[in-house]
Write a structure and sequence with these properties.
There is one protein chain. By secondary structure, the protein is α/β, with parallel strands linked by helices. It has one domain: Rossmann fold (3-Layer(aba) Sandwich), CATH 3.40.50. It has 6 helices and 7 strands, in the order ββααβααβαββαβ. Strand 6, helix 6 and strand 7 form a beta-alpha-beta unit. Helix 2 packs across helix 4 and helix 5 runs parallel beside helix 6.
Length: 172
């Protein structure tokens, strides 16, 4: 069992990422996220899409940013990746299903504090798009699994049948 898996939501079917959050993969994620590396999204997203060929989902949901973080960054890296995964898998993407309330940044918090920080941070605005659906949640990186777990709990409460997570890199 992976480090941290016991902390993950029981609503998560699985969490997969093709790369460890180290070396070139870590650099790619950080450049995408913090150094205007939008040009990396097609390559990273297409890698994710081809890595998951054959899996069956009804809808792709990118992990949302808070409105403040979206204004600061100018884009949502999970949405950029999700668009390419959507194209590769021929599965529709639902961009406005989840919304996120602004909370302190996760990267400075311990694993246990991350879970508490995200309690109630996500809401499902479009439950009809996920009700009884097999949902693929897309993000750039999974570290402790707190964000993925909080999103999965919210999607399950809205009626999602299965929630799985695909990230570019993982540090579980």
């Amino acid at each position: 069992m992976c480090r941290g898996c016991r902390r993950l939501s029981p609503h998560l079917n699985w969490v997969r990422a093709p790369f460890a959050y180290a070396g070139a993969a870590r650099t790619a994620v950080l450049n995408l996220k913090f150094r205007s590396g939008r040009y990396l999204a097609p390559l990273m997203g297409n890698l994710l899409g081809t890595w998951l060929t054959g899996a069956e989902f009804d809808v792709i949901v990118p992990v949302p940013l808070s409105s403040r973080r979206l204004r600061e960054r100018g884009f949502n890296q999970a949405l950029l990746l999700g668009e390419h995964v959507s194209s590769a898998l021929h599965v529709p993407i639902a961009t406005d299903v989840l919304t996120r309330i602004d909370r302190p940044s996760q990267h400075t918090l311990t694993a246990s504090k991350r879970l508490g920080n995200l309690a109630g941070a996500f809401t499902c605005q479009e439950p009809d798009q996920v009700r009884n659906a097999r949902v693929l949640l897309v993000d750039d990186v999974v570290t402790t699994g707190a964000t993925a777990s909080a999103c999965a709990d919210t999607l399950a409460a809205a009626g999602a049948r299965h929630v799985s997570v695909l990230a570019f890199a993982r540090d579980l």
